[in-house]
Specification:
about 180 residues; alpha+beta; 5-stranded antiparallel beta sheet; globular
């Protein structure tokens, strides 16, 4: 499947800008952004996507954990559209684990994230949703939410020694 929506790459200004709140969930523009995000994500082996990654500065993310060659141990969940997402850590407990990003191909890094979070967002119908996320899915949410604030996962790395090539990652962790 070809991807008609180019994923912004590290260095693109859009990845360093703050996304705007969505005020009208049912507007044609927001529907178009969501459709574009779904199409773009489906054409990858990614587990999430933020609107700024397709050069749209709106506070929309998709969390779509699924096993793939990039994330063989990812839990399977239905892709979830989250509009104006926010979260609160349920404790100070953080865990470092490996992350990659469709906007930063070829690199993986150990990134500290909260283990358990309480999230709030609106779904595509504008309904308010609140839920607890843990583990890998909580990590994906936090990674995508960072994109809405102009951050990439490399901004959270504690040491440059925690950054490796994706080819080394696969040698080390998938055998």
């Amino acid at each position: 499947m070809s991807n008609p929506y180019e994923i912004a790459q590290l260095g693109a200004k859009v990845l360093r800008q703050h996304a705007e709140l969505v005020d009208q969930v049912d507007s044609p523009d927001i529907r178009q952004i969501i459709n574009a995000m779904q199409t773009a994500l489906a054409a990858t082996e990614g587990v999430g996507l933020a609107a700024p990654q397709i050069s749209r500065l709106k506070r929309i993310i998709i969390v779509a954990s699924r096993p793939s060659s990039r994330y063989p141990n990812a839990p399977l969940m239905s892709p979830t559209i989250m509009i104006n997402p926010v979260f609160e850590a349920l404790s100070d407990d953080q865990e470092k684990d490996w992350e990659g990003c469709l906007s930063i191909p070829g690199i993986r890094a150990l990134v500290p994230r909260y283990k358990a979070i309480q999230v709030q967002y609106s779904d595509e119908q504008g309904c308010a949703i609140e839920q607890k996320l843990e583990g890998f899915v909580a990590r994906v949410f936090q990674h995508e939410a960072d994109h809405l604030d102009g951050k990439v996962y490399l901004d959270r790395v504690e040491s440059s020694a925690d950054i490796i090539s994706e080819s080394e990652y696969f040698k080390l962790f998938t055998h």
